[in-house]
Automatic annotation (TrEMBL):
Domain PAC: 215-267
InterPro entries per record: Biofilm_reg_signaling, EAL_dom, EAL_sf, GGDEF_dom, Nucleotide_cyclase, PAC, PAS, PAS-assoc_C
Domain PAS: from-to ranges: 141-211
Lineage of the organism: Bacteria, Bacillati, Actinomycetota, Actinomycetes, Pseudonocardiales
Protein source organism: Actinokineospora cianjurensis
Protein name as it appears in the record: Diguanylate cyclase/phosphodiesterase with PAS/PAC sensor(S)
Length: 697
């Protein structure tokens, strides 16, 4: 049923009329409840809940003299059961409902306690006036006191300075389950709950000795039947004319219902409503406490995420997914929960296990293995047998080595490692690996600005004709002059550039620099200027503007297209079909040379190779080791090189060998008919000035 705030206000007014006397007409009461309803709804709409307005609503009922426990109980039930349903406001945040109930109860209780305290003061003053007045005045005052004493809704007790009860009212006797006569003569110690901490008695001792005049605290008392009774106790001291302690006046309010409500709200705030496990707040509290232990204490954290849970949710529905989460939580709880351990749900399909006072990494590894084994057993859910695995990140360390926040950050990192390594496994925190990951992230974040600020530069490695040792070309190799990490080779950042897509602007920049250098050499050396070979990533061939960009760059540099060679790896060029293949042909039509890099390391389709617009083949450097005259040389390498050279020449391609490091390798390549070579035997990659010194020899 949906009726809006007015309907809820009418329901609330009816409940109040049933549970207490309302000193206003029906219309006025409904209007007042309508204002209070709007305050509750405002709290449920807020992004950051503020309890004070709702507390004032609870206090307002006490101010209307609606202060009975039945009024509080009925109002809380109505707010919890009917507020969202009756008002029907879609923007309300249901998760804030316990907080609204708690704030309402707190405001009601606070106002009630203040009222009781005022009543107590009235009683105490009446007692003093009765003692000091004349006999007639004393009698009148005592009559007034007795009427108030007996008719008060809260428990009242008067005792001597030693705590022996002299007078109690009916409300207190009913509260404790005794007759009034049974309580007279008892000592307050007889009402204490067993095993009460000694610190709870200290305020009473201070008042009875005269060290203080009053105190107020929550106490757990024992009823006549032995059951616990939560109370709010206020004790005041009445002194003699000389200032010595004479009487103790106590006001006792039964707050058992409020205490149970607070306990329920506290449980809801610290436990996951779906699985019943502790939630993120509960886990964080335990983790922080564990880090507050002695310096020699160690803690362990297992952070796990279910593999493939989204597939189950999407294919079978969220109801099945929720049932699976409940079943997983129950299995983990049975397996893990023990003294010094807690398992919590962090949200979604993520769970975390805390091992307080860990004995070492082996304990965490054993626990992770047992968790993986336990989850491997299928779960019977909704007529299905669902299999699920988990990826687990492990962190085990001394409490002095990190903070709770750093520990959870590292656990999250290791969880990511476990997923990246193949899932259904655990990964332990490794500071060296983490440092490498941080460095990779740092490079990735820096790279866009580095391209713009020209932190990159190009080195050139000579390509030499084997027949006469003449320099015929150079390979352009990009380097990064990082302001923090120093000089970085391409193996340290090209992979990152490809992952982030920055390989496209970076490759465009390298080609522009290489063509400008080719122009300078062409102007200085004419026909003796070397061909410049530039690496082209597979990702670049997918760019629709690649051909136009290359044509623009070559035109701007004003170099003959035939002096530029673009290199693609064998695996990249052999997978080019459709658009990428047309791109290669368009580049070849511009007059640019195309070369296959690292040839022989992939699985080439030779029939396809003969139709590609390729001009040169670059043999992978891994074959060069077999061309050495040494016992470890593999004779199969020589046969492979011979075959590849013959095949390439049959297809009309020039052959360039990479990674040539000694004269023996060069002699064998020359013997096999290889056209050109590059490697440390001839020169390492260097600045353009080194190439110019070569040309000037």
């Amino acid at each position: 049923m949906v009726g809006g705030p007015d309907a809820f206000a009418r329901m609330w007014a009816a409940v109040l009329t049933e549970t207490g006397y309302v000193a206003m007409d029906r219309r006025g009461l409904v209007e007042q409840m309508r204002e209070y309803t709007e305050v509750l709804l405002a709290g449920l709409r807020s992004d950051r809940f503020a309890p004070e307005p709702v507390e004032r609503v609870g206090a307002g009922l006490v101010g209307m003299r609606l202060a009975g426990p039945e009024t509080l109980r009925a109002s809380l039930l109505l707010i919890g059961a009917d507020l969202l349903r009756v008002t029907g406001a879609g923007e309300l945040r249901a998760e804030l409902l316990p907080a609204v109930q708690g704030a309402f109860a707190a405001g009601f209780a606070t106002a009630m306690q203040e009222k009781i305290f005022r009543d107590q003061e009235t009683i105490r003053r009446a007692a003093l006036e009765a003692r000091r007045g004349a006999e007639v005045a004393l009698l009148a005052s005592e009559n007034r006191f007795r009427a108030m004493f007996n008719q008060a809704a809260v428990g009242i007790a008067i005792g001597d300075a030693d705590g022996t009860l002299l007078e109690v009212n009916t409300a207190l006797a009913d509260m404790l389950g005794y007759q009034v006569d049974e309580l007279r003569g008892m000592n307050v110690d007889d009402l204490r709950f067993p095993d009460e901490p000694a610190a709870m008695r200290r305020p009473f001792d201070e008042v009875s000795s005269g060290a203080r005049d009053h105190y107020r605290m929550e106490r757990l008392l024992r009823r006549a039947d032995g059951k616990p009774l939560w109370t709010d106790v206020t004790v005041s001291l009445v002194r003699t004319e000389t200032g010595e302690p004479q009487y103790l006046v106590g006001m006792i309010e039964d707050i058992t219902d409020r205490h149970l409500l607070e306990e329920r709200l506290r449980h809801q705030a610290n436990h996951d409503p779906l699985t019943g496990l502790g939630n993120r707040a509960r886990f964080t509290e335990r983790l922080t406490t564990a880090f507050g232990c002695d310096d020699d204490t160690r803690v362990g954290v297992c952070y796990l995420d279910l593999d493939g849970f989204k597939v189950i949710n999407d294919s079978l529905g969220h109801d099945i997914g929720d049932e699976l989460l409940v079943a997983v939580a129950a299995r983990l709880d049975r397996l893990v929960t023990a003294p010094g351990r807690i398992v919590a749900r962090m949200g979604g399909d993520e769970f975390v296990v805390l091992v307080e006072r860990s004995s070492g990494r082996a304990e965490l590894v054993d626990l992770a293995d047992r968790i993986l084994a336990a989850l491997a057993e299928p779960f019977p859910i909704g007529g299905h047998r669902l299999a699920v695995s988990a990826s687990i990140g492990l962190v085990e360390r001394s409490v002095v080595d990190a903070t709770p926040a750093e520990t959870m950050r590292d656990a999250d990192v290791t969880l990511y490692w476990a997923k990246a390594d193949g899932k259904n496994r655990w990964a332990a925190y490794d500071p060296d690996r983490n440092a490498r990951e941080v460095a990779r992230f740092t490079l990735s974040a820096r790279m866009p600005a580095a391209v713009e600020s020209e932190e990159f530069y190009v080195d050139y490695q000579p390509i030499v004709r084997l027949s006469d040792g003449h320099l015929i070309g150079v390979e352009a190799l990009v380097r990064w002059a990082h302001p923090e990490f120093g000089r970085l080779g391409p193996d340290q950042f090209i992979g990152l550039a490809e992952e982030t897509g920055l390989i496209v602007p970076l490759g465009r920049w390298v080609l522009r620099e290489a063509t400008r250098q080719a122009r300078r050499w062409h102007d200085a050396y004419g026909d003796r200027a070397p061909m410049v070979s530039v690496n082209l990533a597979a990702r670049q061939t997918e760019e629709p503007t690649l051909v136009a960009d290359v044509a623009t760059i070559i035109k701007a540099a004003n170099v003959p297209p035939s002096t530029i060679q673009l290199e693609l790896t064998e695996s990249a060029i052999m997978s080019t079909t459709g658009g990428p293949l047309r791109t290669l042909r368009d580049l070849a039509d511009l007059g640019i040379r195309i070369a296959i890099d690292d040839f022989g390391t992939g699985y080439s389709n030779l029939a396809y190779l003969r139709h590609l617009p390729v001009h040169a083949i670059k043999l992978a450097g891994s074959f060069m080791e077999g061309l050495r005259d040494s016992p470890t040389a593999d004779p199969a390498d020589a046969q492979i090189v011979t075959t590849l050279v013959a095949l390439s020449h049959a297809l009309g391609h020039v052959v360039i060998a990479e990674g040539v490091e000694d004269p023996e390798q060069a002699d064998r390549l020359r013997e096999f008919g290889c056209d050109s070579a590059q490697g440390w035997l001839f020169a390492k990659p260097g600045r353009p000035e080194e190439i110019e010194r070569w040309l000037e020899k």
